[in-house]
Design a protein that fits this description.
Two copies of one chain form a homodimer. Chain A contains 15 helices and 16 strands. By secondary structure, chain A is an alpha/beta fold. In chain A, 53% of the residues are buried. Chain A has two domains: 238 residues, Aldehyde Dehydrogenase, Chain A, domain 1; 148 residues, Aldehyde Dehydrogenase, Chain A, domain 2 (3-Layer(aba) Sandwich). In chain A, helix 12 links the parallel strand 9 and strand 10. The longest helix of chain A has 22 residues. The interface between A and B is large, with 66 and 64 residues.
Chain lengths: 418, 418
């Protein structure tokens, strides 16, 4: 226990010292590190693949499914992908030091808000080893030190990747402890870090709901959470049916296993008869199981009956809840009651309806005539992302470099007194 | 106990419903409410003063000092001040609905970030009844419902003020429960609210350190904290001594009892001999007790000896710690070690020194050649403020209307799919 206390405290203190140095690093130094890390990922690929093979061998012991083992595996091709991601982050603008806004006061005082790093990020994630590199890159580029806690299933891979990242930091004159890996698999270590609100500025858990809930419960510092996406597409009576069908299919089917895929279709009663049979056939052809209310099933006899719980479910597979609503207001109420404030879309050609929907639906992203699948850092133009926040505070929706920063006021005067 | 559960739950649920309605209110409606509330504060001043007299009569029972009783008292003049503050907030721009930024993607998707209210604010404060009105005004103007928990010493005054505010809400067609007052003085009520992370979006405690610590410990939702201000003025060797003296005196003496008053003077060794005797005399004349290190006392024999604890103390009175440092880097290290990341100033004519200080000092506000007293919502141009955050997350420094908002992504397309 004392060992664990010492170990976690040492990591956190080293991160704090590193963060202070990193905050003053230029964008150029950070980019040199990103390029160097990309080179090492390629030139040391044999070492990385060998370490990864140890994890893959042990995977059945941890009860990983074959799909999970596939996600765990590092191949030459995947290492090329990891290196490219590093190069892409190097191309993004350095967010640190940017003057966000300024204001010259009547007394001549120039008040500026300057973007600065949050400080120390504690990042908890599961098995895919590429996340280790991505998260480190986003944190360093935004000037933050990071403590990485990956899944035990990927420990050997993560150790090997972390070794390269730290080596590259030293080679580039950046603080070695700016990226640290929690090397113990003791679950208690997480609890220790979650108490260190004086050393860690934000915790980002990425993984299953129980992990996120545990972190939200125990953390004494701010947390950026990434909960469920129970996303809706609402088809208004004024919608172009061809467009609506295309958007429903894309939102549901393009990649059903992700948080911004649609889980529920709401259709205005005035167009249910004209639209539902058409979209129902298309969804059926795409292999989607439909679960509807009575009015839906009257029009789509092949649809199963939806339970109350269905409307609250993030299926993450080819299943879609369907409901006929009497008005846009009913659609908004349904989304408020059953949704998860992640991503919701309206398909409409009515300006009033679009305005009402975007004003009243309180979600991280609200789409008008576009697929729910666009709620993503890349698609929104943020560059890299470390997750999609379902919180309201500080960062909402995709979290890129800027979302890992805060600001300070810097005021320049010429002797002003109050 | 069950009664308390029911009561607190009811308030929180009413606040949530009110917040949803308020988020869609126009700026005009909110401003009409502010004007109406200002009118009522003036026209019903006898009722308010009578309620306040009950608090003033009971004050000795609560052990209030005469200074505290004075702060508690409502007079005609103070009510005029409260009404003016409401009118001033009405003049500020409505922050809700503002497009913060936008980005047209290569596929034609227009991605905007739209400013929206945080939702429900739980505001905990102490005895001054004007804070009841200020906080309600700032919350409503930024589109948030607020649950007010004032001090028990001001309960009668707060009830009377709250009655007017709620009456004005109803008269203006805004939800009555957008402003609610916790009417029980049971300390347990606070604990109940702090657990309701599903109903309350942010808690803002304003008061003593123990209150803030308790809230930070118990709250399950984000908290905007307002901790100590151990603020420094560092006089660099390149400083204009006349300006430096003026800024030190103003930072320390203009209002010593507030968080942005200076508590520690750091002087570069190269100018200590020339500057310290001069500023020492001026501070002595202003009635300031000095507590210095050995090098300071060699130059200022009348200074007391500073202990380690002195350098960590927010005196809030006419006492100043003084230390001679060997370099700007030593000053930065001292501020990092002993300061509270609130407000720190440098006096210098050296551009390099100014840049190094503003880059390395990690405080909510960093001043160059200006008094620490300017770290304030009014002085920085935010209009009204609900506190000065010493947190890094979400809001840092003065918190005005914008700091009580978040954003959502609203994306407009024409049928884009991924």
């Amino acid at each position: 226990m004392t060992d664990l206390d010492d170990y976690t405290k040492r990591l956190a203190e080293q991160a704090r010292v590193a963060a202070r140095k990193l905050a003053a690093a230029t964008g150029g130094m950070k980019d040199v590190w990103l390029h160097r890390a990309a080179e090492l990922v390629l030139s040391r690929r044999q070492e990385l693949i060998a370490a990864n093979e140890q994890d893959v061998r042990l995977a059945p012991e941890y009860g990983l499914t074959s799909a999970a083992i596939d996600r765990l595996r590092l191949t030459e091709e995947r290492l090329v992908g990891i290196a490219s991601a590093l190069e892409e982050i190097a191309l993004l603008p350095n967010p640190v030091g940017e003057i966000i806004d300024s204001n010259v006061r009547p007394n001549g005082l120039l008040v500026t808000r300057v973007r600065v790093p949050l400080g120390v990020v504690f990042f908890i994630y599961e098995s895919r080893p590429n996340v280790t590199v991505d998260a480190a890159a986003i944190c360093i580029k935004s000037g933050n030190a990071v403590i990485l806690r990956g899944g035990k299933e990927a420990l050997h891979s993560n150790r090997a990747l972390h070794r390269l990242l730290a080596e590259a930091l030293v080679a580039c004159g950046l603080p070695e402890h700016a990226v640290q890996l929690v090397e113990t698999t003791d679950r208690e270590a997480v609890g220790r870090f979650l108490k260190m609100s004086d050393k860690i500025d934000v915790t980002i858990p990425r993984g299953g709901k129980s992990l996120i809930e545990r972190v939200a419960q125990e953390a004494r510092m701010p947390v950026i959470k990434h909960f469920d996406g129970v996303c809706h597409v609402y088809v208004d009576q004024s919608a172009d049916f061809e467009m609506a069908e295309r958007l429903v299919i894309n939102s549901k089917c393009q990649r059903p296993g992700v948080c911004n895929a649609a889980e529920c279709l709401l259709v205005h009663a005035a167009c249910a008869e004209a639209f539902l049979p058409r979209v129902g056939r298309a969804l059926q052809q795409a292999g989607v199981e439909l679960r509807g209310d009575a009015r839906t099933r009257a029009l789509l006899p092949f649809a199963k009956s939806a339970t109350e719980q269905d409307y609250r479910t993030e299926y993450l597979e080819l299943i879609l809840s369907v409901k006929v609503v009497d008005s846009l207001e009913d659609a908004v109420r349904h989304i408020e009651e059953y949704g998860s404030h992640h991503t919701d879309a309206i398909v409409t050609n009515d300006l009033n309806a679009a305005t009402l929907f975007t004003t009243c639906v309180d979600s991280a992203a609200v789409m008008v005539n576009a697929s729910t699948r666009f709620n993503d850092g890349g698609e929104f133009g943020l560059g890299a992302e470390i997750g999609i926040s379902t919180d309201r505070f500080h960062a909402r929706g995709p979290c890129g470099l800027k979302e890992l920063t805060t600001y300070k006021y810097v005021a320049h005067g010429s002797g002003q007194t109050k």
